[in-house]
Amino acid sequence: MQARDAPDVAPLLQALCVFYPQAMEGILMTDHFGSCLCGTVSFEVKGEFDSFYLCHCQHCQKDTGSAHAANLFSQSAKLVWRSGADAVTSFTLPGTRHSKSFCELCGSALPNTQIAGLLVVPAGCLDTEISMSPTAHIFSSSKAAWDGEFGEVPKFEGLPN
Q1: Max Cα-Cα span within the chain
Q2: CA–CA distances in Å: residue 84 to residues 43, 77, 116
Q3: Model confidence pLDDT, tens digit, residues 51-109
Q4: CA dist., res. 105 & res. 155, Å (int)
Q5: Are 122 and 114 in contact (CB under 8 A)?
Q6: How far apart are CA 151 and CA 148, in angstroms?
C-alpha cells in the first residue's frame, strides 16, 4: 500500500480519544523542556498542565524579586531530570506550603514536587513554548503597589541606551 492509498486514521483516533482517553496518552502527550540559567540543570515535563497562575502573594514576590510568580500546575504530568538533578535544591518556608526548587549554582527557579501529587513549573524556566494562557491572577489582594497598567511608560526592545 502506498502513502496515497493509506486510510485516514484521524477520525478513528479522535473517536478512540473520546471513549478511551488513556489510549491516547502515548500519541497526544505533550513534552515540554526546560533548564536553568547556567545550563547545569535540564528537565523534561511529559504531559499537560492543568492551570497557569500568576501569583501576587508576598511569598512569591520575595522569591521571584518581581511583582508575581508565573507557575504552571499539573496533577498528571511527569517530571524527568535530564541533567544536573544533584544541583537542584529546595526550600519550604516554615509553617507554610510555599516551596521553591532552584539550581544551587545559578539560583534559577526550577520545577517543584514538594507538594504530593502536584508538579509546579515556573513558566520562565521552560525552553519550549507553551500554548496555555494564564488561568487567573491569584492573591491579588497582595498585589504590589507598583504593579499595574503603565500605558505611558516607554517600551524598549532591549536595554535602553
Answers
A1: 66
A2: 9, 20, 22
A3: 999 999 999 999 999 999 999 999 999 999 999 999 999 999 999 989 999 999 999 99
A4: 32
A5: no
A6: 9
- For residue range 32-57, what is the model confidence (pLDDT) as tens digits? 999 999 999 999 999 999 999 999 99
Q: Which residue has the cell 527557579?
A: 109
3-state helix, strand, coil in the chain (%, to 5): 25, 30, 45
Rounded Cα gap, residues 98 and 121, in angstroms: 13
Identity (one letter) of the amino acid at 39?
Answer: G
> Which residue is it, cell 534559577?
108
In whole angstroms, what is the distance from residue 134 CA to residue 9 CA? 33
Q: Reduced to 3 states, what is the DSSP secondary structure of residue 75?
A: coil
pLDDT above 90: percentage of residues in the chain: 67
43: which strand partners?
34, 81
Whether the Cβ atoms of residue 109 and residue 123 lie closer than 8 Å to each other: no
pTM: 0.77
Note whether 69 and 33 are within 8 A (CB): no
